[in-house]
Amino acid sequence: EKDLPRVFEQMPELRFLDLSWTGIDSLPRSISHLVKLRLLDLDFCRSLRNITGVGALKQLITLDLSATPIEELPVEIGELTQLRRLHMFATVHLKRVASGILPRLCFLEILKMGGSSYAWQSEGLVGEASLQELLGLRRLDDLALVVRSVTDFEFFDQSTSLQSWKDDVTIECRILETSTTMKFEGKFNKWESEFEEEDMVAKILAAASSMVDKYEGFFDKA
């Protein structure tokens, strides 16, 4: 890891960089030399809290921050105007996404924030991103997020902006207030709910019912 800065200085043509599952706690300053980088994979870097310098990677198309302990999405992410895919699955320490970042990512197609501790709201706190900003991303076709309440989900569902997304858009939305996961398939134009606890109970009851039917049939034959 100590050798990373010198390595990057010698690799200006590098397009893909996989640092996943490494012990880095920040990005080396020399990462700014990777001006042609298209993909940066940092998932499961369990010590990575500081990604200062990522804004220099102007050609970046895919950024994976999944399962990292970042607490705030840095404003310089907004400099990555070519970004198509942003993965932040299981960012369980994420507390803040500043307003004004996402609207600059006008080419964003995939945003994965399932399992994140950041819960979107229809009206964010002062200086924080809101669902309204998210709905402005016209090119999204794959979205996973967490919203705080049923009211926030209803705002999201009823927004006219949602209807402007692609017909094949897929959305997974977890509602913290009810522990419900809602899934939307654009091609069917409808939401389906998943109640995790109820699903488990239903499966147990179905298995029990099947067993009862099986043994009833056995005794009938006897």
TrEMBL record:
Q: Which SMART domains match?
A: LRR_TYP
Keywords, ordered alphabetically: Leucine-rich repeat, Repeat
Record has Calcium as a keyword: no
Q: Does the keyword Oxidoreductase apply?
A: no
Write the protein's name. Answer: Uncharacterized protein
The organism named in the record is Nymphaea colorata (pocket water lily)
Query: What broad taxonomic lineage does this protein's source fall under?
Result: Eukaryota, Viridiplantae, Streptophyta, Embryophyta, Tracheophyta
